[in-house]
Write a structure and sequence with these properties.
Helices cover about 45% and strands about 15% of the residues. By secondary structure, the protein is of the alpha/beta class. A 5-stranded parallel β-sheet has the order 5-4-3-10-11, with helices on both faces. Strands 6-7-8-9 form a 4-stranded antiparallel β-sheet. β10, α6 and β11 form a beta-alpha-beta unit. The structure holds zinc ion.
């Protein structure tokens, strides 16, 4: 089956056909680096990662470009308040973003660029728009003349024919001929960073950076542009206007937008106190892979309602998958194979691929793999599973995880490396303690309702069993009993057999 995607531009699900066979060019609006990115931002980034991984899975060679918006009104204001230069101020959040991406298993785009490293190219594009009559200057700033671009509104489908003067579409404080016009270049103001250019001293508007960086690295027409649905208007509409006015060509062939993330049914906002960064959730004891799983679990075109209950569920779902894989790798089964089980494993792979082909239906893809986990566990418990069935099941799991990327049990190691989790202390091995990296996060920890004990990873259980074996060999039975009791408390049951200690979760 062919891959089909919902294109915001056409308003329809379309078969995906790239411009160049077997290659896909993708532009992704990156973060504005004035603070830590929040989980609503990461919902979009996880969606884009699933998209990218699935395109690779289907054999496409992917070239993805992501910008880092490192100059805008908020950044200028915050950097000044912090007494830091723009570069210095934004660098800390770019680094934090890179750490977060690693924690969430987000693949690194082929090109990641800071906006302020592309000023010359932005000036050139603005000059082209001036030459073609699409731009005008007012008090040192340069604006895009929306009236001249007949296709304005084709992405957002907003009808501007009515109350135009009242439609305030941008937050610029400068004089504009038409309320819809937007700034391409903002004249320098006292005390603000600016660049001396042929347009005069100033700094670029936000929209122009994405037109410039996408076309520079992907060509004037490219395959996919993606972002959160809040960017459709005005940001993406303005990108189309600037790019197509300058080149006379179609800018983007497929526009993909991820829907909002809500918290307990409400919009996430600092004032409501329901605003979470990735680090806020880690500080509460959640694994980054559980957060990735939750963010990927809802279809990208449906709003995602974030709750702690659903995050808790996600953490258990991941444990379930990891345990099943552990059984496949380690449990002993009778020789032979069962055709029925082989068929199930193959059918599950076909089902999750069909779900992803269908406009990246991640929820259905998860459903397919959990059906397989249930059937496999049942077959094992009933003694029907055979040694020869292992490979087919593992193969399906491995293929599925190329896209979902949650099976590897290495959250703890990655958090340690990032300095977001305390190193293990002897006799305090059960709960890796998150290290708060801000006073706000530290304030979460005393809340017992919200501190969630991490289920033990398989690696941690194995280490613990080895320690118990050693204690038993040296006849330290008190120690071995206490390890058994601690594991039981953590939900792990031990069973001593002739061939060694087996374990399972309660
Ligand atoms: Zn953008």
């Amino acid at each position: 089956m062919a891959l089909r995607l919902y294109n915001t531009l056409s308003g329809q699900v379309e078969e995906f056909k790239p411009l160049v066979p077997n290659h896909v060019s993708i532009y992704t609006c990156g973060p504005t680096v004035y603070d830590y990115a929040h989980i609503g931002n990461y919902r979009t980034f996880v969606f884009q990662d699933i998209l990218r991984r699935y395109l690779q899975y289907r054999g496409y060679q992917v070239r993805q470009v992501m910008n880092l918006t490192d100059v805008d009104d908020k950044i200028v204001r915050n950097a000044r308040a912090a007494g830091l230069g723009l570069r210095e101020y934004t660098e800390q959040y770019i680094q934090a973003f890179n750490v977060d991406r690693q924690l969430l298993n987000l693949q690194t785009p082929e090109v990641m660029v800071r906006a302020t490293d592309q000023i010359d190219d932005m000036v050139k594009l603005i000059q082209t728009l001036q030459e073609k009559g699409y731009a005008y200057t007012s008090e040192g700033s340069v604006y895009f003349r929306v009236e001249k671009f007949a296709d304005y509104g084709k992405l957002s489908k907003i009808d501007f024919s009515g109350n135009r003067a009242g439609a305030r579409v941008d937050n610029d404080e400068y004089d504009k001929a038409d309320a819809r016009d937007f700034a391409l270049w903002k004249a320098a103001k006292d005390g603000e960073p600016s660049w001396p250019t042929a347009l005069g001293a100033g700094r670029p508007g936000w929209h122009i950076e994405c037109s410039v960086m996408s076309m520079k690295y992907l060509g004037e027409t490219f395959d996919i542009h993606s972002g959160g649905s809040d960017l459709i208007f005005p940001h993406h509409e303005n990108e189309i206007a600037q790019s197509e006015a300058a080149t006379g060509k179609l800018f983007v062939r497929y526009w993909l937008h991820a829907e909002h993330l809500m918290v307990n049914g409400q919009k996430m906002s600092k004032s409501l106190g329901n605003f979470f960064t990735l680090r806020d959730l880690i500080a509460r004891g959640f694994k980054p892979t559980a957060i990735r799983y939750l963010l990927a679990s809802v279809h990208f075109r449906s709003p995602l309602n974030f709750t702690f209950e659903s995050l808790h569920q996600a953490q258990h779902s991941i444990e379930r998958l990891r345990n099943f894989r552990y059984r496949l790798l380690n449990e002993k089964f009778p020789a032979g194979e069962k055709l029925e089980l082989q068929t199930q494993a193959r059918a599950a792979r076909e089902a999750f691929e069909a779900a992803l082909d269908d406009n990246l239906n991640t929820a259905a893809a998860l459903g397919a793999i959990f059906d397989l986990v249930r059937d496999g566990n049942t077959a094992m418990d009933q003694g029907r599973f055979r040694d020869g069935d292992r490979a087919g099941f593992l193969d399906t799991l491995e293929h599925w995880d190329r896209i979902f990327a949650v099976l590897e049990d290495n959250d703890y190691e990655k958090l340690l490396e990032a300095g977001l989790c305390a190193p293990p202390v002897e006799d305090d091995w059960q709960i890796p303690r998150p290290v708060p990296d801000s006073p706000r996060q530290a304030s979460y920890l005393p809340d017992p309702e919200l501190v969630i004990v991490q289920p033990l990873g398989n690696g941690e259980i194995e280490r613990r069993i080895a320690e118990r074996d050693a204690a038993r060999s040296s006849r330290n039975f008190a120690r071995s009993d206490s390890i058994r009791a601690e594991l039981l408390e953590a939900g792990v049951v031990l069973e001593d057999t002739k061939s060694g200690t087996r374990w399972k979760r309660k």
